[in-house]
Each structure stands twice: as structure tokens, then as C-alpha cells.
Specification:
The protein is of the alpha/beta class. The chain has one domain: Rossmann fold. Helices cover 50% and strands 9% of the residues. The protein has 11 helices and 6 strands. The chain has a 6-stranded mixed beta sheet, with helices on both faces. Strand 5, helix 10 and strand 6 form a beta-alpha-beta unit. The longest helix has 16 residues. The model has no long low-confidence stretch (mean pLDDT 95).
Length: 214
């Protein structure tokens, strides 16, 4: 079989990818959430995100407004942290936090018999700020946020991005977040990942900056 490659300039690869995605979508996207959905599909080549990404009312608008106001982002993995465009985030005055490698977090998690992600979310909440939580790996991070919210110890999140991937308590943890009275974006089901969490953050950042390819 003869393989014929498309001749695409490096600067045009992402734009061409988006054109292909739009052409292969079987149903129109909600314009309010389109940028987030397209970037999730672009990151994964998985068109299921057109249907399994769920949004609380005005979640995208409120997330964009929070970023423009200088909101910080907390992730549950260093991979998600690495994938977020920190240059654009810094332009608005925000920064990314990840506490998984914090020695005190590790020690406390071991002593209590819980995951580092659980303690990381508690540490983030103790900062007393309304932040964006980008969770792509640990359902226990989502459970921690939900439990702190129930206990009244969690400052109202500017946005929760709940897209952990996996099999154990993943779907259940996502459903808990959808019960919370705050903005959320959740990938229902088992699919997700740190790359998806970072992609959603970047979609919001690029929308906030007015440039979809920063």
C-alpha cells in the first residue's frame, strides 16, 4: 500500500488538526463549551469527549473569568502541572501548585493511611484561596474535595476539572463533584487523564487570552 502524507507546514499542524476534528464530528458542539471539547479531542484523538464531557452552568465562562482575575491552579500530578501553559497563566497573575512530592504531604499520607492526593487537596484548601482544581489521575483527590466541601473547610473552588482516568472509584468520585455547588467540568465514565486535565486548563487559558494557539 502506498502511503501519501499530507504536506502541512509546522505552524499549521494544529489548525489542520482542528479542521479534521470539526469535519469528523457527527453532531454540532455547544458553542459555549466548544473550545474545551475540541482541545480534549485534539489531545487524545478520542471523539467520545464530545459526549462524555459534562459542564455545570456557565462553567467555562466562570473558569475563564477566574483565570483573568489571577486564579491559581492546583493539580494532582506533576504531569498535569507540566502540561499547563504557565507563561499564559503568569500573564494573568496565576501560578500552578502541585504538592504530591511535598515531604510533609508524603509523611502525613503514610501516617494516616491515605493517598498523597488526599492530603494534597487538604494542603491546597488550607491556603484559603478560591482556586481551580485540575484532577486527571486520582479519584481520591476529588473525594477529598467533596468531603472538605461537605465539612465547610474548602474555600469555594473557582472551578473543579474532574477528569481522572481508571477503574476504582473513578466514576463514583466524578459523580460526587457533579453534586457540588460550584463550577465543574467532568469527564463522565472511566476516561480521562493528566493530559486531559492540562488540555482543559489550556483551552480556558487560550480563551482568556483571546488566542487559541498561544
Amino acid at each position: 500500500m502506498k502511503v501519501e502524507l499530507q504536506r502541512v507546514a509546522p505552524a499549521q499542524i494544529e489548525a489542520r488538526s482542528m479542521e479534521i476534528i470539526r469535519s469528523e464530528l457527527t453532531e454540532p458542539l455547544d458553542p459555549e463549551n466548544e473550545a474545551v471539547i475540541l482541545r480534549a479531542i485534539h489531545t487524545t484523538a478520542d471523539f467520545d469527549y464530545a459526549k462524555n464531557l459534562c459542564f455545570s452552568p456557565e462553567a467555562v465562562r466562570r473558569g475563564v473569568e477566574a483565570l483573568r482575575a489571577g486564579a491559581d491552579i492546583v493539580t494532582d500530578t506533576t504531569m498535569a502541572m507540566s502540561g499547563i501553559n504557565k507563561r499564559v497563566l503568569a500573564r494573568f497573575g496565576g501560578q500552578v501548585y502541585n504538592f504530591i512530592a511535598d515531604p510533609q504531604v508524603a509523611a502525613q499520607a503514610k501516617e494516616r493511611g491515605v493517598t498523597r492526593a488526599t492530603v494534597s487537596m487538604e494542603k491546597a484548601a488550607s491556603m484559603g484561596k478560591s482556586m481551580i482544581y485540575a484532577i486527571g489521575n486520582a479519584p481520591t483527590a476529588l473525594v477529598s474535595l467533596y468531603e472538605q466541601w461537605q465539612e465547610g473547610t474548602l474555600p469555594t473552588p473557582a472551578l473543579i476539572i474532574g477528569v481522572p482516568v481508571g477503574f476504582v472509584n473513578v466514576m463514583e468520585a466524578k459523580e460526587l463533584i457533579m453534586e457540588m455547588d460550584c463550577p465543574w467540568i467532568v469527564a463522565r465514565g472511566r476516561k480521562g487523564g493528566s493530559n486531559v486535565a492540562a488540555a482543559i486548563c489550556n483551552a480556558l487559558l487560550y480563551t482568556a487570552s483571546g488566542n487559541e494557539r498561544e
